[in-house]
Amino acid sequence: MKIAWRYQNLPKMEASPAASSRFGHYYDVSKTLSPELLQSTKWHRFFLPEEISLQPNINICNMTSGYTRLLQSIQRIIYQEGFDGSHPQKKQKNILRIGIQNLGSVLWGEDICCTDNPEDVHSLTKFLYILRSLLRMSLSACIITVPAHLIQNKAIMERVTNLSDTVVALESFIGSERETNPLYKDYHGLIHIHQIPQLNCLICDVSDTKDLAFRLKRKLFTIEVCIRTDYPEGLWYLHP
Amino acid sequence: MSFCPQGVSLPAAKERGQLVFLEGLKSCFEVLFKEEPPTGQPSPLQFIREGGSNLKALYEFVRTSLTPSESDSWKCPVLLVDDVSVLLSLGMRPVDVLDFIHYCRATVCSQLKGNVVVLVHSSENSDDTENELVVNALCHQSNLILWAEGLATGYCKDIHGQLKIIPRRPAELSTERDLPRTYQYKIQDRNVTFFARGMSAAVL
Fold first, then answer.
1. Would you tell me the Gene Ontology cellular component terms (chain A) (predicted)?
2. Where in the sequence is the domain holding A96, given as residue range(s)?
3. ipTM of predicted assembly, 2 dp
């Protein structure tokens, strides 16, 4: 599938890649989902303030109740919609795609973003492990955003990375000294790939390039290779 | 030098009773989301449900799985723990993790004359002091440390990393073979190739 989308815009005949003006996946970030598409697709949402009144019936001691409720909700959807094979899926087989925003923030009843001595440092990592067990036992995938810049306790972020398959960090230039660095004038930030998946095999597909920068235009989010020379020490940049 | 070109069939070993496999994620799912099993035997991962920092049930599982019954002919069991750092993420205190490993060693090594192999994650300049405490303690308790890390010079397509083999024996019992050795390695689909530093096929 990865090969297919990358080459779908290239001419069918053998031609040099430079002959094609488009490369990669074209995704218009200025567009939103059409109401018709939304109506025809089965989707569920979880909004914590609405769930607060319900009692959680799984017992996971010492975990923030917001996470407990979220896990319960995900498990219920997996079971009811047949993503765990418990009742056969009615239409063609599909994968449950889950998106969780701002995990670890105060919106989930956590305090790891407010203080470097949080009340419970283990809630988030426990949640991730249990979520992983739900995903492992069903046909599902999950993408999570975490406000890492707010989490003071760096040990938590190390553990979060080890508990995840893929970890990508976006570092914005806004408010940093790089904003005025002429090297970065065409970009809005850097992309760091901290972890790539090694699922069911010994090796993973490591890219040759490590210096990636991103740019957010009106319709496109692009990722480009950016040769960095602002390493703190050791690298000399010779300007001809 | 490469390991296991033919591979070992784990499903076959499991059938024969030669391998007991506790899959953490599956066990976790069962202890939290499935009905209580009728046997009444506590799940090895009971601590995820109960809270607290108690790995006794996990140790009991190890002990009963590896202690041979009358009919078993298997001897000298090997316990592989992958990986201990996850236990810290689940709320275990370092002292309880180390106690668990200690009990396992007492049973597997001293009593059953077997071996224990433990995997931990670590990184340079890590902020995870609890994890580093466990890593250091385990290193001190081990007879052999296999330390795998990336190259100091950064990522290389043909050399994925280096492995330091560090034997740890009391000074008076050390021989020439007990000096630390470093190999570089390249990981392939189902195999790992090791070579001496500077001897990668890409370099020669």
1. cytoplasm; elongator holoenzyme complex; transcription elongation factor complex
2. 43-163
3. 0.87
